[in-house]
Amino acid sequence: MPNTTPHPPVLCSFATSTELCDAVAHFIIKAQKEAVEKKGRFSVAISGGSLPKQLNALIGKAGVKWDKWQVFYADERVVPLDHPDSNHKLCMDELFSKVPIPADNIHPIDPSLADDLEELCDAYEKELIREFAQKDSARFPIFDLILLGVGPDGHTASLFPGHALLTEEDRWVAYIEDSPKPPPKRVTLTFPVINHAARVAFVASGEGKADTLKTVLDKPEEGLPASRVRPAHPGQLYWFCDDAAVSKVEYPRTQYKL
Ligand SMILES: O=C(O)[C@H](O)[C@@H](O)[C@H](O)[C@H](O)COP(=O)(O)O
């Protein structure tokens, strides 16, 4: 029997936000290089919050092959794409409008389907199937990289503590209409998709995250959504944090080598 136990998470911590963002950029470029060498493209899912800004060390960086990126959203608020709450708008403003990525390589949700979230999720799944399923007969897409943040309540993507979506086993993309954090209508990649990725990386900074990360990393048995991110073998989970965010965490650090 092959060993399918998930690898333990790798936690890297940095003194400053510049060092953190530089390491994240380095890590992403390495993942991109491996993916492009293997199959000529790089599939990545991104969430909102501080993350798009934390990716700004990629702007102007040598080695980023933007034309090879295929970008999806790990979660999205169901609002027009130019609405201030849109994760797509945030990513465009902070990153994609500043780099030479072809517009067709970015895959936002279709907000014209906002009145039928079932249909909106189906449409986004079809978008994913176009990228993944033709080349890969796997039951779930295998992203090269999923980049996530973590909220103060331990939510990640739009997977909130205690929500029925935490046990979703079939859908690739699911919706909620009762998000405890506004706006209430959101769509999200599900745990089976997140946990099939080749790599998942959380990026978390600031002392406001200290208690949450203590629970997520030191007490995974409490089952907060961020603790449920455990990519299946041979996938790997990474945590990129600043020292303030992990000041209360006992989980061992790994030195990141640039
Ligand atoms: O959709 C949302 O409400 C936010 O995008 C949210 O999920 C965010 O990603 C986390 O709260 C982490 O955000 P920070 O890294 O900014 O704390």
TrEMBL record:
Q: Which residues form the Glucosamine/galactosamine-6-phosphate isomerase domain?
A: 16-239
Cite the InterPro entries for this sequence: 6-phosphogluconolactonase_DevB (IPR005900), 6PGL (IPR039104), Glc/Gal-6P_isomerase (IPR006148), NagB/RpiA_transferase-like (IPR037171)
Q: In which pathway does it act?
A: Carbohydrate degradation; pentose phosphate pathway; D-ribulose 5-phosphate from D-glucose 6-phosphate (oxidative stage): step 2/3
Enzyme class name: hydrolase
Q: Does the keyword Translocase apply?
A: no
Which Gene Ontology terms describe the biological processes this protein takes part in?
carbohydrate metabolic process; pentose-phosphate shunt
Keywords, ordered alphabetically: Hydrolase
**Entry's EC annotation:** 3.1.1.31
User: What GO molecular function terms would the record report?
Assistant: 6-phosphogluconolactonase activity
PANTHER family assigned: 6-PHOSPHOGLUCONOLACTONASE (PTHR11054)
**Task of the protein:** Hydrolysis of 6-phosphogluconolactone to 6-phosphogluconate.
Protein name from the UniProt record: 6-phosphogluconolactonase
Organism source for this protein?
Answer: Wolfiporia cocos (strain MD-104) (Brown rot fungus)
